[in-house]
Design a protein that fits this description.
Blueprint: E1 2-3, E2 9-10, E3 25-35, E4 45-58, E5 63-72, E6 75-85, E7 91-101, E8 104-115, E9 120-131, H1 136-139, E10 147-157, E11 161-171, E12 180-190, E13 196-204, E14 211-222, E15 225-234, E16 237-246, E17 253-262, E18 267-276, E19 279-288, E20 291-299, E21 301-305, E22 308-312, E23 318-323, E24 331-334, E25 337-341, E26 347-353, E27 359-363, E28 372-374, E29 378-381, E30 388-392, E31 395-397, E32 401-406, E33 418-423, E34 429-431, E35 437-440, E36 446-453, E37 456-463, E38 473-478, E39 480-481
Parallel strand pairs: 23-30, 32-38
Antiparallel strand pairs: 1-2, 3-4, 4-5, 5-6, 6-7, 7-8, 8-9, 9-10, 10-11, 11-12, 12-13, 13-14, 14-15, 15-16, 16-17, 17-18, 18-19, 19-20, 21-22, 23-26, 24-25, 24-27, 27-29, 28-31, 32-35, 33-34, 33-36, 36-37, 37-39
Amino acid sequence: MRSGARGRWTSRSTPPSACSLPACRDWSLAAGRVREAYGLRSFAYYPDTVASASIRYGLSDRFTLEAHAEGGGGLRNAGLGGVWQLGSAGVLSASHVRSTLGELRGSQSAVAYTWQPGRLNLALDGQYTQGDYRDIASLYGPAPATRIERALVGYLAPRAGSFNLSHLRLEQDDPAMAPARYVGAFWSRTFERGWSANLSINQGLEDRDDRSLYVGVLVPLGRNRQFNVSAQHQGGATDVLADLSQPIPGDGGRGWRVQARLGAEAGAAGEFGWMHDHGRLQLGAGRYGERTQAYAQADGALVWMGGGLFTARRIDDAFAVVTTDGLADVPVQLENRTVGQTDARGRLLVTPLRAWQSNRVGVDPMDLPADVRIDDIALSATPSDRAGTTVGFQLREVRAALLVLHDADGAPLPVGATVLGSRDVDGVTAVVGFDGEAYVEGLSQTNHLRVRSDAGDCSVRFEAPRQTDSIPRIGPLRCVGEPAP
């Protein structure tokens, strides 16, 4: 659970510390210009170039060291922090940052603690600013809050749902902004057939009239469609929002949403989205109150890796480039789900992968041509955050056949006879099975094989055609006994 500056709590699932193993390293670097009048003006940026960099390093399986720096426009900001895994006692983190901007100097300290024993969860955090602390965001907006303290305690009941109680204290550097304290209660539950409900109440302790109430219900309609209705009462006004949507499937496709609102800014809006392997497009328009808006958005990614350039959807986690030794049209699977086929050069960009976790990337051998063999049908890929890795499958073309071997009298050769000079699918000497059948690989156009059994040795000669869609069956072939030396 997470609260905004004014105490409204939202739910978000996050993985544990992704860099808690010894010698684990995770870093990021960003540079550019800050958007100006976002959502109101296009291609508008502030003139200063700014940059930020972060790095995390796992000193042990329980402690991760963190460092962060940012600057631009005369700002210099840098600090250190750490995350301690306390085992069953929870997770403790702390950081300290210092900044300079001309004559302004200040610092910011933060500490947080989380504990989740079974169905109970507890979260405490505080952030405190000393002096004239500044960061990139405050170059173009208000200064950071001088004091933020939050506390959350929750309990997950098997049948009644999830309950949370929260407290927030906020103090701003601006004298015009009075200190604020809020208490809140939140409840949510998922019912049978997938529909869910949630309720939240926030009460300001400095002003009895500062109160907000929110209730929402989500109903799945099948066929990847859902209906959501919610109502919010705040400041003496009530808004009701109804939303019908069909989200874009995770594997790609089309999605849409229509929305209607009743209240102070009544109106309606609609949106259409489409996602392909190479990107995502969204179009929408709406009118609320006196405001009319329309928008179009396209996003995607370019990846240069493994000697090739790939276009892809937006990558927020990790990715892999799968290679198949130049073999095209090979179906590739991610966690047993087909995600695409290799291109003409035997490559495929696979997204998204989970960073710092094992991802099972595989090839279904049943979809391979009959004359292709693969050493490993599945490999594990563990990329770092917002990075990629190469997953190479070794495929080779082979000439194979199912031979029907008979002796000089026309009877099938005995079970267990070995075919010398050939290999089967497991790479060992081929063995004759029932009805004199033996599967052999590594054949050429003209072949001369020797068969050894308890009855003696014999040899067979035959022509092997190149395979098409199936393994050819050759025979019956008469295995002629070899003369004694």
